[in-house]
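SAMPLE LOG
Freezer: B-3
Tube label: C17
Construct: single chain, 188 aa
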Amino acid sequence: MAALPPLPDGLDCACLPRASGVSAQAQLQPWLAARLGEVALARDARGRPRLAQGDADVNWSHSGALLLVALARAGRVGVDVERQRPRPRALALARRFFAPAEADWLQALPAAAREGAFVRLWCAKEALLKAHGHGLSFGLHKAVFGERDGVLRLLECDALLGAPDCWFLREWAPAAGYRAALAWRRPG
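STRUCTURE (predicted):
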């Protein structure tokens, strides 16, 4: 597994091998217990996982053989991990669900780079929208990312997400054939 990128104080993240036949929630309980003691998990009205008490926030994602989990001691956190696979309809999906500028960026890329860039955008968007608490149903087009110096940055977003500079994003390849993103909204 690749090393996690540096994270600010108060954030913790791990990429674990996915255990067959075990729910992601059951698998991450020991990881959470090692950091917070015994904790109970609940779901909010939208089905988003949360700690039953306290101010910390937890989120997880799984794809293929990986389980990605993140914990924020304060603020809101969201993660997404995706196995890279052929996505022949990536550009059509981007045109339908992403912001026009993002779809234009993808279309301008060489065909060989397009699917990888699509997965990067997807992970960033899903992580941010999960941290926000509404998930994908909020609208993928409401968070607009752009790439600068090889790094995705939130350029603009719906007012309900707050200002773009309130968000912290890290993206990386946790293992060969996977992409991941972590989004954190600073408290306050």
